Amino acid sequence: MQKLDRDYTIEPTDLRKSVGSAIRPLGGMILFCEEGCAIVSVNFKRRPLRCGNIVFVFPDTLFVVHAVSKKFRVRNLEMSPGLFDETTFSLSSAFFDRVYDDPIFQTSAEQRILLYSWHCHNDYYMHVLVGKPVRMMIRNQIQNLFMAIEALTMPEIPAKNIKPISIVRQQFNRFCRLLVEHCYSQHDVKFYADKLCITPYYLSKITFKTLGISPKELIDRQIVMEMKRLLVSTDLSAKEIADRFHFDSTSYMGRYFRRHTGMTPTEFRE
Fold first, then answer.
1. Under CATH, which architecture does the 167-269 domain have?
2. 45, 46, 51, 52: CA torsion to nearest 10
3. Which of 75, 95, 176, 206 could bond 60 through an S-S bridge, CB–CB 3.0 to 4.6 Å?
4. Which pTM was predicted?
5. Going by CATH, does the domain composed of 8-160 fall within 2.60.120.280?
6. Where in the chain do CATH 1.10.10.60 domains reside?
């Protein structure tokens, strides 16, 4: 994604220009499917996207559009990292886990009427207000949407067990954003710990507490996921991919990929 001129953009699109490639937001992105259908992949899990669906795409989500119908249309809301943090700080860790596992939500007819009103309010704010007030109103709108979906999708969790997102989870989310930005050139845990102004040991505590794995495993997962994306959606040669990821040689990259996937890059592409 290109750098945003402001904290957010809201615009209709048919996503045709994105077919065959990954969509990566700078902060966070919400897609509201308003018409037609599409086939997408979320972290390599192929899914249908239909009218009435809402999709949350977070910084560490690999979202790929494979095909869209003739009349497919979504409304795309993209947020800067700062606005994303502001609108999600009160959400529970359980909700984040829910979204990471399944980021596509189906709305009812009644909820779609409410969403239409929500969009109308946003349009009004953007066309009538200027400066700080419009940003504050849009921020509140997005935060209210997140909170409403959390309440609707997680009623089975007792209120006493739903705690606001912790500092640990905030640090983990920042780590994920850094991975997306730097995984091509930076493969060492210390680089990311330094960026977060913490020690590698504390970063490992964060990732183990959140997902039960080490930061190095997450770095490797991100690299392999990006390599898979290039193998599937581009014609880049193995050498070109190795160069992009700053591997010493094509053969080393091949061994690295095989160690994590059980197959060579060529076998995966085929």
1. Orthogonal Bundle (1.10)
2. -10
3. 176
4. 0.66
5. yes
6. 167-269
